[in-house]
Every structure is written in C-alpha cells, then in structure tokens.
Amino acid sequence: MIPIHSVDAERRRLRGQPKGRQVDPAVLAQVQGWLGPEPLRRDRLVEILHIVNDRLRCLPAPHLAALAQLMKLSQAEVFEVASFYHHFEVVKEGADGRVPAAPLTTVRVCDGLACEMAGAQDLLARLPGLLGGEVRVIPTPCVGRCDTAPAVVVHQFPVRHATPQAVAEALAAGRSTEVVTGHIGLDTYIEQGGYRLLQQCHAGERSADSVIQALEGAGLRGLGGAGFPAGRKWRIVREQPAPRLLAVNADEGEPGTFKDRWLLERDPHRLLEGVFIAAWAVGVDKVFIYLRDEYPGCRALLLHELDRLQAQPPVPGLPAVELRRGAGAYVCGEESAMIESIEGRRGLPRLRPPYVAERGLFGRPTLVHNVETLFWVREIVDRGSAWFAAQGRHGRSGLRRFSVSGRVAQPGVKLAPAGITLRELIDEYCGGMQPGHELYAYLPGGASGGILPARLADVPMDFDSLQPYGCFIGSAAVIVLSQHDRAVDAARNVMRFFAHESCGQCTPCRAGTAKAVALMAQPVWHAPLLAELGQVMRDASICGLGQAAPNIVDGVLAHFAHEVAP
Asked: Which of 406, 470, 519, 526 is deepest in the core (most CB within 10 A)?
C-alpha cells in the first residue's frame, strides 16, 4: 500500500512566499552597504559584480540573490552574467545550507604559449606543495605579461619571471595588488606639450576635417587586429545621427599581446588626448574605456589621472569618461562582445549588420578603437601624415609596436617600421635569439594569426603581406619558437585556449574548438578531417574567435607536417 500524504499544510505554509531562492535580509543589508551610492543601473551589472567579488573573492549565491533584488532584476539574469566571466566564481550552498568559504588567496599561473615555453607547467606542479593547502593554485589563460614569462598573479599582484621562491616571497610579504610607478603624469605631460593639440582643436585652429585627413593621409589603420582605416571609421561614425559614443578597447586578450598595458603604464595622457580629439572630431557625448581586469595597476592609474583631468581640464566641456572592467573573457576583445559587456550582459558577439558604427553602445553610433590606434593621433597630426607614411620597410608605410615574446634575447614592446621582417625584428630590436636557440617557427599575430617556419622569416610583417601564407599580423603579437620547441605543441596550447575562451553562442566555435583539441591530441593528425572542420568554423562562426582558431592548424599542416605525420 502506497502511503498518501496531504500537501494542504505545506501549500498553506508556502502560500504568499515567492518562488525560487529567498533573499537573506542580513545579506541584503551587507550588499547594500558595500554598494553605497553606486548607481544600480542595469548596464553597471558587471561593475557591481566586481564590487562584491573584490570583497569576498567569490560570488556566493545568496549575495547574487540579494543583488538581483536590489537591482530589480531576475536572479537568473544576474546568475547568467556572473557565471559567464572567468574571474567571477559563483559559489552555491552545500548540503548543509552553508556557502563554503573562498580561499584566502588564489595564485594564478599563466599557461599561455609564452609562459608554457618558459616553464609554467613546472610551476603548476611545484607551487601547490610549496604554498600549502590554504592557497589555491590554478592555471589561467594569458595575463598580458608575455615579456616577463613565466607570469604568476598572486591575487592581483603580478610576479614577473616567476620562480617558486619568488611566488612564495610575494605571498609571505602580503602582496596582493599592483602599483604602477614611473609614468608621465598630468603636469609633466602638459610641460612636454601635451593637450596643446586638443586646445588647438577646441579653439578652432584646426578643423575636424583636417584632423581626419591627417589620419587618412598617414594610412593609419586600426592596430587592435582588424586593420580598418582609422580616418574612414571616424567619417562613418561622424555621419551618423547624434548622440554618438566612443568605446576604447583596452581588453587586449590575444595571447602574446601586451603593448596596450605597456603604453598605459608609461604615458596614459597620450592615449587620453587621442581619445578627446577623436571625441571632438566625431561629436561624441560620452567615452567608455573597457580595460582588462588583469591590469589592476593600469586601472588605478587611469582613475587617478582622470580625477586630475576633472579637477584641471585642459579645455572646457570634456566628454564624460567611464572606466569599465572586463572580467576575464577573451571574446570581449571583439568589439560587439565588448559592447555587450559594457551594457552589463554576457559578452556574446552580435550578428552584423548593423555594425557598431551605426548601432553600437545603447543602440547609438559608436566609434571603437584600441589603445595603440588612439595613442598615435597626437603625433600623426602634430608631425604630419607625410612623416608617418614615410616610415616603413619593403614597400609598406607607417610604424607599429610589436609585442615580442618567446625565445628572443630581449622580449618586450618594440617600435619598428611596418613591413619589417621577423629576421630584421629579432636582429635589430630584440638582441638576437637567446643563447643556444635558433629560429624554428613564429606566430606573427598572436594565437589567431597562424604560424610560419623559419624559412619564411624574411616575409614583410604587415596587414596584407602575410595573407598569402595563411597568416595575418593582427595585433602584432610575435611569439618566437626555437629548435627546442615544436609547432604542434604550440598549436595544441593555442587551441586549448580557444576552446576555453569560446563564448558558446555558436555551435561551429563551441563544438569545433573542442573537437579540434581532441583531434590534435593524437600523435598522428587526421589532416582531411581537421581541414574540413576548420573550413566549417571559418564559414559559420559568428565572430573572429571561431573564424581564426583554425589558422594555426592550417599552418602546422602546411609547414610542419613532419611533426604530425605517421
């Protein structure tokens, strides 16, 4: 006989009680106190999640429920955003109803290609035993410090050229955040002629057309990866109906890229002057700067210098500038995904058209540039387009900054002529190869730019010159391999990164990267199947992540087939 229990009493008990997770009044008051006067706008959801995460070093489910109530959002909406970003760890209640405590300290070991070549796996193996069980040691994708590989981050403090001892010392000293020093501050920048061009623009001594013509004459192209002509982009956005916005993409997540951090740490006002000139020329009401969460020192520096500018504006009527943090999602380097994140949502790339120049942030026409592109504005307009266009080698024009890492003697950011070859770059700017290392292969454009053998080290590195070889320059992140490395190992590292960073929105990328990882793990590659998979990913993926992920596979099959053949 099956016992039958009446549910009337239970129904009466729950009657009038909202469905779902109930908000703890104490937690609600706690979160409300942390937020203070923080505006609880929907578009600030990611920023507000950072506030809670900074306090607790995780995002407990009860706190997310409280946040949802405060912001008048559904809990599902808050949970889906929080769980999308890698730097947010959502922690749910255990069987006893309690939320497990977060580790006091998390040590992140970068396992990007440059760091893996420099010994990241050894660090991952040794650090847990050395640091003890109360410290969590986890691998993490590229943290933008490939020039000082291997890189380890203790909470938010970067340990450069990390060794187990150096990490232990940083932990023992209580270092948990980064402070950037030695930069050009506002007073020094003004003394050196800074903001004079901006003042000329606002005084009517220069016209918007003349500034745009200077960029066009210089041939300046977007230096974040896409290479779209900067002047043309300004004209397109300028022609759109007001109000217009400007978004600065400082979320350089491409493995091997660190030039934007390098520029911000040294001369932040040169970027800001470029931002304000662009805003003036295009007619922009407000500026958003989207910065990698991996750069806390740059964030503190920018906030300080923006406060200085607000107190001492070089011209009246500067547009408002809002600094937004990323949260560890490589895909947000794609402009439409970045816009989604700024609007407080998951960073899912948008289908196009419409393009962000027509309908971007909050549905408004939006000018999007990376840091280096805007960094060039003052110098090009001051010195003239002819000066910039005259730079370059092998029939190319202009200058660009290369992020160089790997087996070179002197890695770092190198200002060099556009069109320079890899061999010239290594010999003239990087002090040659490391002792005992000979050039074997290189990635000319970071993880997504493909891979080439040493015999092609004399090909000019520029936007169009690498395409016949199945590669592109992208953000000019150059990773150099030697005879002690294997192209197949580099390709596996890169594909694991893409699989980890896929947003999951489209099947070709989500399933394709995972399938590629499995196929590439085999000692002998199924070349026809990998080629077919790569073509599907290129044809059907929504954004550049899925479209470019197969490039390194094609490069290995084309130039290093001996490493994966029977």
From this structure: 406
